[in-house]
């Protein structure tokens, strides 16, 4: 058990019998009211965002989470097979834990798995990945005055909106958290 003073971004707490990761924590002291902590958190199971107020000094149940890097090998139905770098042990992980980010996962990529005891509670991909554009329509000449976007299919099958100057076989950097285009990579 800890208190509200221990709330930091990245900490995992037990809230309504669900594991939630703290995204933001702000201590507020309004003029004539008691101090409180405004906390924004994400449910690790459902991915839903929520905000809550905790009274200052309130006890909170923190969850001990261990994080370790693993290599993604392949997909077997609804299971993703990961391998430990140290002892080469392979184990399956439910695809539901990764959510929409699974569309950016390539074979042999690294991912960080979060464990509570011996059970996996979350999978974190790198924030940015470089992927090759497999298919996109050619851009229309003279359409550069505004930020015109077009869909592009990437090597993993994901579809991302990109600027019109992106062509097939270009390598682009994508933000895995919100599935957005960042930049074109010079090869």
Please describe what this structure looks like:
The chain is mainly beta. It folds into three domains: 2-62, SH3 type barrels (Roll), CATH 2.30.30; 66-124, OB fold (Dihydrolipoamide Acetyltransferase, E2P) (Beta Barrel), CATH 2.40.50; 128-185, Beta Barrel (OB fold (Dihydrolipoamide Acetyltransferase, E2P)), CATH 2.40.50. Helix content is 0%, strand content 55%. The chain is built from no helices and 16 strands. It has a six-stranded antiparallel beta sheet, with no helix packed on it. The chain starts with a strand and ends with a strand. The mean pLDDT is 86.
SSE layout:
Elements: E1 2-3, E2 12-15, E3 18-28, E4 36-43, E5 49-55, E6 59-62, E7 66-76, E8 79-84, E9 90-94, E10 110-116, E11 119-124, E12 128-136, E13 149-154, E14 159-163, E15 171-175, E16 180-185
* Helix run count: 0
Q: Might you state the CATH topology name of the largest domain?
A: SH3 type barrels
How does the overall form come out from the CA principal axes? flat
- The ordered H/E elements are EEEEEEEEEEEEEEEE
Mean pLDDT: 86
Number of domains: 3
* CATH level-1 class of the largest domain: Mainly Beta
> Numbering strands along the chain, what is their spatial order in the largest sheet?
1-6-2-3-4-5
Radius of gyration of CA atoms, rounded to a whole number: 21 Å
Measured between the Cα atoms of the first and last residue, the distance is 51 Å
